[in-house]
Amino acid sequence: MAHLNVTINGRNYAIACEDGQQEHLGRLADYVKARVDELVDSVGQIGDARLLLMASLLVSDELSDAYSDLEAARAALEEASQAGATAGAEETTVLIEQMAARIEAIAEQLEAP
């Protein structure tokens, strides 16, 4: 098991993670640190627990927005896919009708004396 030391708001935290995940966890910690630093700049030093709670709520809000955007994108993709399938079915119907008309015309020519 790997370990990573993270500094947020001047406090060090030792975090355990799976081997190979240190870089990813470091990026996540840097993101949280940046959010905490933004909060400190706007509201001042209000305690580590409160700052981390506020940063967690901000990150959760961003994640919620991202999930909403993802769901909207999936719905739009599904709608476009269904519209494309409908358009494709309509085109296929037209082609089949055209082929049927040609076949009937050929059949009439063959039946003619």
Present the secondary structure layout.
Elements lengths: L1 E7 L2 E7 L4 H22 L4 H64 L2
Antiparallel strand pairs: 1-2
Percent range of helical residues:
over 70%
Query: Which ranges are low-confidence, i.e. pLDDT below 50, for 5 or more consecutive residues?
Result: none
Strand content: 5-15%
Quaternary state of this entry equals single chain
**Average pLDDT for all residues:** 87
Helical stretch count? 2
Rounded to an integer in angstroms, the radius of gyration calculated over CA atoms is 31 Å
State the total count of DSSP E strands. Answer: 2
Based on secondary structure, the structural category is alpha+beta
Architecture overview:
With 113 residues, the protein is of the alpha+beta class. The protein has two helices and two strands. The protein has helices spanning 22-43, 48-111; strands at 2-8, 11-17. The chain is rod-shaped and about 95 Å long.
Main traits of this protein?
single chain; 113 residues; alpha+beta; two-stranded antiparallel ribbon; rod-shaped
Tell me briefly what this model is.
By secondary structure, this protein is α+β, with helices and mostly antiparallel strands.
